[in-house]
Amino acid sequence: MKDPQPTPVRRLDYAPPSHLVDTVDLVFELAEAHTLVTARLGCRRNPEAREPAEALRLDGELLELLEIELDGKPLGPNAYTLTKDYLEISGPLPEQFELQTRVRIKPQENTAFSGLYRSSSTFCTQCEAQGFRRITYMLDRPDVMSRYTTQIIADATRYPVLLSNGNRVASEALEDGRHSVRWEDPFPKPTYLFALVGGDLRAHAASFTTRSGREVRLEIWVEPHEIDKCDHALQSLANAMRWDEEVFGLEYDLDIYMILAVHDFNMGAMENKGLNIFNSKYVLAALETATDDDYEGVEAVVGHEYFHNWTGNRVTCRDWFQLTLKEGLTVFRDQQFTADMTSAAVKRIDDVRGLRIVQFAEDRGPMAHPIRPDAYVEMNNFYTSTVYNKGAEVIRMYHTLLGAEGFRRGMDLYFERHDGQAVTCDDFRAAMADANQADLEQFERWYVQAGTPQLHALGTWADGRYTLTLTQSGPPSLGEQSYLVRHMPVSVGLLGPDGNDLPLRLEGEDQAAAVSGTRVLELRESEQQFVFVDLPAKPVVSVLRGFSAPVELHIERSREELAFLMANDSDAFNRWDAGQRFATDTLLAMVGAIEAGAAAVLDPLFVDSWGAIAADDALDGSLKALALDLPDERVLGQAMSVVAVDAIHHARAQAMASLGRAHHDLLLAAHQSNVGQAYDASRESIARRRLANTALAFLCASDPKQGGSLARQQFDSADNMTDRQAALACLVELPGEARDHGVLAFHEQWRSDPLVLDKWFAVQARAGVADTLERVLALRDHADFDRRNPNRARALLGTFAQRNQAHFHAADGRGYRLLADEVIAIDQLNPQVAARLVSAFNSWRRFDSERQALLREQLERIAASPTLSKDVGEIVGRALAVSHSGDIDLPG
Ligand code: B3K
Ligand code: ZN
Predict the structure, then answer these.
(1) Model-level pTM?
(2) Which site in 2, 343, 394, 875 is 20 to 30 Å from 660, CA atoms measured?
(3) Quick one: pLDDT at residue 887?
(4) Shared-domain flag, residues 179 and 230
């Protein structure tokens, strides 16, 4: 495995393929010991190739070549070269030819879950980014699009269901107890969208009529005992199909849409043409086993993969550096979908919260890269929050700058120009610009430079005029690079003394231009001034409403101003954000006091403002729960130059207890009036549960006795997983009888449901209570811990390392050692999962010098592992290469 210095692939080295493969005809013979794959490739020289190539080099890994023929004639060993990662057919080759290979592969031994593998007794595939080369020899790159036929032959009893992309065109029983099914996909596609399934499965099915009147069969395939948990996924699929027709005018194009759920899957799901393969976490849902958030997750991911059918499959990426072309755009589409299905404000807050915790941290760490990266060693390492979530923010900025209609015009032109093609981010930007006669030249910079821009806002007031000065600059992590000034929308409102929005008119505009509410200012310079006129009184400015650009906003705010915005901002996002900022300021003051050995007190104005939110009956319960929740320990850590691990933990716990005491009656009422209602899945009920469970957490923090007994009662009587899991999360904070009861009873009831058991591990791994590290160490040795299963590994180790700052960063370094041990072990089975886990070390430079030494020791230990994969090698290599100034030595 270990390659001392793997050479990075670079974006600027792109060259068109030497050959095109118009047709791929595959025959799979699936069996227990091994699988045989016969591939017939219809090849021709690529007229676009820069230099007409003599030879043809096909990608292939872990394949045993059994036969090879060119135009029907066997090739001798001198006619080709075989290495561990390719098969090269020597030239000269005809203009057009047919190449047939037959290989043997071992899906049973594939623990990396890339290529063809088994999840329990089901055969399934994962080909993105470069898994197809583990199935057969092929030009495994997205700009080679081919028409596929797939014949699958397998034992009829063990594998009665055999699926692939497109339409089923033939099936027959064979004499030896096997059967054969043939699939044909009429749409040319790149290798990464290929899929195959073989197993003993059942389908939950329905029919969908497209707006042009075509019937599409929808099928959710699962293990037989899971058939009752598919309804929500099926409904979500139909919702997504309808939504894409209504909002983007996009209709589904095949007669069948299948989704398979498996328990072993490296990520969330995969958009293979006509046959999505999903992590069961994003398919299976029943009220006893799935929380409200799980339900939303299913709908969002089903939507996401469905939306890829146009943004990804019909129009795909020319090369992997363009990944955000499909991922940023599809995340933006799924965000809009969820916003329409649920609450736009709640969705926006959730997404920005996630972006700030994960993507902002990525932007200032050793893996920082632009949304269109310039180099990679292992492509799978670049399926990042930057490419996905910052990429979605960049798409959102087109939407904000051009308006919903302008954005739609751009999308229409994009499909008109590029349907059936493999294209680039520049092609997308050109379509947006051309459809709107807009100048998006400068906008390219969002694709070019890594790092989170810093936006400074300064307001001055005189004679009825409010002058807002906006300045943009680069983050310190840019090092020597000079900052590329961006074109960005900055949405702004001005609040009058009564808390209402004032009409906004910029100097020089005529009276009729005044709008009440929000205005989008376009920032293109490093500094720009905007002068608002005709203002009756001194306003309070609300900047970056709806988080209109992915930047860090700096604006001086008094406590009174924050309290005022927290109570009044008409923009739900900024109202929430003002509360978070106020909370962060007061919590950091407490952290400072704790570190100085002084008494830490919560700002009384914050306590009152927080209480006013809790008492605001007009506020939707989901928004209220978000507003009451204090900033995550990681967010507080990000605001410090050296993360004060323990002081942050104590300050936050103390603040929760103080708020719980100060507003006890209000919280008790919020809990009691909302918990224990008969379950339903409406928005209102979800909001009630969120509010009740947020209140419960504060009650437990302030009065463990009363809170604990409420939690216990809720735990024992809940008829749904949302309330039961929330109660368990409170019980695990109360060592002794309460915790023992919760942990044992939950395990007893759910030990045989893997997704629920994952929750059991995750809840314990997130706990704030003092003995968490001991318990996590014990859970790693629990009989139900299985590091081969990605969901289980993530539930325990991912949760602990990425979401439990206080205990993962325990001063004695045992948390670090645990993670390093597991990364080394998992890397030998599944490099992709190991690479995700090891990323928890990326922030290591942000801790004190004692912790840094311990962290470095573990990183070096991993780097020295004799079986290091290039996935993990790239991440730890970059983590160790970052110099103290924050400059990054790019690999190679
Ligand atoms: N496109 C897949 C991700 C593939 C990850 C490969 N390591 C899922 C998605 O974004 O829809
Ligand atoms: Zn995607």
Answers:
(1) 0.98
(2) 343
(3) 45
(4) no
